[in-house]
Specification:
The chain is about 20% helix and about 25% strand. It is an alpha/beta fold. It folds into two domains: about 70 residues, no CATH class; about 280 residues, Aldolase class I (TIM Barrel, Alpha-Beta Barrel). Strands 13-14-15-16-17-18-19-20 form an eight-stranded mixed sheet. A three-stranded antiparallel sheet has the order 7-12-11, with no helix packed on it. The chain is globular and about 65 Å long. The N terminus is likely disordered.
Length: about 425
């Protein structure tokens, strides 16, 4: 810690300039350097270990008047001006990053809780704040038709622009709503690319949470990754704007979009978002020439009606193409839906048959035991066999079936990456 800040902490004389606003956090920090009473949601700019044990009502003089114990968290704070917004009268800003298109008053946050209107400038609070970095098989994303058997360096920050009741990564995706930003350290885009290269990854996947909400961080990383010959993948809920896709598409090589339902009421009730922006994103991703795969988590009683699945399959086949892979994933009880039973295998099989009847050439079951196959749409021979995320055999020859010569849609060679 810089000596000047240490001295201020010891003497309880921290200036306004030493702090920035954080979402959903109101604490009186304690540290080895002493105590200081702060106004709501303000933390020192340099990284500090803060034991969040005192919270809540804050008077006009900035004194904490209520207390509640909380976890010990390291807050690494990074302010970076956002892209894709416009300034409005009265200090408001209009964010054009995601489907919510938030109009944000001074001092407030967008739905994502990681973009703040600070003095009339929209800033992102998660630039450089990678909460997760790890190496995954690209099949885990899932992307079955993009460099099969390769490694994807996976990165995420906290935050999401949806609030899915079944969220599989809620501990980090919903963290900005539940307890603010989490323990992390600043990792620059240059460091992410270097880490990907060090781990022999052919791609960087922006995943686990929602890459749209850390767009500036992903965008700067993606440009550097392409310059280094590394592909970029979005694993996303699709709730972004056309403006965002126009900006990222020269550097984005593939996306897996989670189409959660084909009913607006389901999106409203279970995710806090809308269906149409997702459908628009799917069509635009396809039109931009970005390799696209679609995933649907089938939740019993939510989106498993055969009529809805038929409508969804027809949209994929008719608007995105019959060569678009559709991943049907089994639900397991999680987050706010602990009492909903796992998806019965019979429903997954029904969904699979619905996809095939719609003319989809590549339909896969996920979160289930056993092998998955990619079969030739021409002669039906099995071309790629997988067990879990492991490739058992890959018989493709230059992206084609060796038996009948039928081309199989996908990105199979490194030389195809880059625009």
């Amino acid at each position: 810690m810089p000596g000047s800040l240490q001295s201020k902490l010891l003497n309880n004389k921290i200036a306004e300039s030493d702090f920035i606003v954080m979402p959903e956090v109101g604490i009186e920090p304690t540290s080895p350097y002493g105590h200081a009473s702060l106004s709501r949601a303000r933390l020192p700019v340099p990284p500090l270990w803060l034991e969040c044990e005192k919270y809540n009502q804050v008077g006009g003089d900035g004194q904490v008047t209520g207390y509640q114990r909380g976890p010990r968290i390291l807050y690494t704070i990074s302010m970076h001006e956002a892209r894709l917004y416009e300034k409005l009268p009265d200090g408001k800003v209009h964010c054009h990053l995601c489907g919510h298109r938030c109009i944000i008053p001074l001092g407030e946050f967008g739905v994502c809780q990681v973009r703040e209107n600070r003095d009339g400038t929209l800033v992102t609070l998660v630039y450089g704040c990678a909460i997760s970095q790890q190496v995954d098989p690209v099949e885990k994303k899932p992307l079955y038709h993009f460099l099969p058997g390769s490694l994807a360096f996976s990165v995420a920050t906290v935050g999401c622009n949806m609030q899915c009741q079944w969220c599989q990564n809620w501990q980090i995706a919903q963290a900005s709503r539940t307890h603010g930003l989490m323990e992390t350290r600043h990792t620059s885009p240059e460091e992410l690319v270097a880490n990907a290269r060090a781990n022999r990854s052919h791609s960087i996947a922006y995943t686990y949470t929602e890459p749209t909400i850390f767009f500036e961080y992903a965008y700067d990383t993606a440009r550097l990754a392409h310059a280094a010959g590394i592909a970029n993948l979005y694993i996303t809920n699709g709730y972004m704007t056309g403006e965002m896709l126009d900006l990222i598409h020269p550097y984005l090589d593939a996306a897996n979009v989670d189409l959660k339902s084909f009913r607006q009421r389901t999106y409203t009730r279970y995710t806090g978002a809308g269906l149409q922006p997702v459908l628009d994103s799917l069509k635009k991703i396809k039109d931009l020439g970005i390799w696209l795969e679609v995933t649907t988590l089938i939740v019993p009683g939510v989106n498993d009606d055969p009529a809805e699945l038929t409508d969804m399959a027809a949209f994929i086949a008719g608007e995105l193409g019959t060569d678009t892979p559709w991943h049907l994933s089994r639900f397991f009880p999680h987050y706010h839906m602990p009492d909903t039973p796992p998806t019965p295998p019979s429903i997954l099989r029904t969904a699979f048959e619905i996809g095939k009847r719609a003319g989809l050439q590549y339909v896969y079951l996920g979160n289930v035991a056993g092998e998955t196959h990619t079969d030739c749409p021409g002669c039906g021979q099995t071309l790629i066999r997988r067990s879990g995320y492991t490739i058992l055999t890959n018989r493709l020859a230059n992206g084609c079936c060796p038996a009948c010569g039928q081309a199989v849609s996908g990105v199979w060679e490194f030389s195809l990456i880059g625009k």
